[in-house]
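Box 4.2: Ligand-aware structure prediction
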Amino acid sequence: MVKTVCVYCAASAKANQEYLSAAEELGKYLSKHNVHCVYGGGHVGLMGSLADSMIKHNGEITGIIPRFMQEENWNHKGLKNLIVTETMHERKARMASMSDAAIALPGGCGTMEELLEIITWKQLGLYPKPIIIVNIEGYFNPLIEMLKKAIEEKFMKAEHAIMWQVVSLPDQVLAAIENESKWEYNTLNFAVI
Ligand code: AMP
């Protein structure tokens, strides 16, 4: 059973309620299943909804935030565990090293960058762990299409499409993580196009 997941998601509080509710549901679901959640440490948007829900349901949650964001007071004040890093890169490396799987909820550039980076790391064998895209309201369809396009245009191999799984709802995340066959492609040969 997976112990710790990292969750990438939006800082925007202006996002549609369906997205904010999905973050809340994921927090409730992870708490109920005793899964430790590591996330970006923010207090607004989907990040805020996720953290509020984890705290409300007595779940274990750790925020990892770079110092410049903490100095702007962007961190969630209700967290028992907050790790402050010197850089954004260090933050993402800590989120990856602490987690057994990565989950992406809808978000903007920050979320997409985190998702694409972790897929890249998986391709290179640096993150041989499940990556789950929670495709609320089909939000990620264009990005998934773009990844398919990259395969069609031979920027990636067809086999690379097994690096990510797409689910529609937060309560499908743990089954997807458990069902993932062991990542056997963590050799650099797999990365070669
Ligand atoms: P975005 O999807 O552009 O809203 O960016 C969200 C991602 O970027 C999160 O997973 C965080 O790692 C980081 N991030 C962006 N804005 C903030 C913020 N206000 N507070 C904390 N983290 C943030």
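In the box above, the bound molecule is adenosine monophosphate. The chain has a mean pLDDT of 96.
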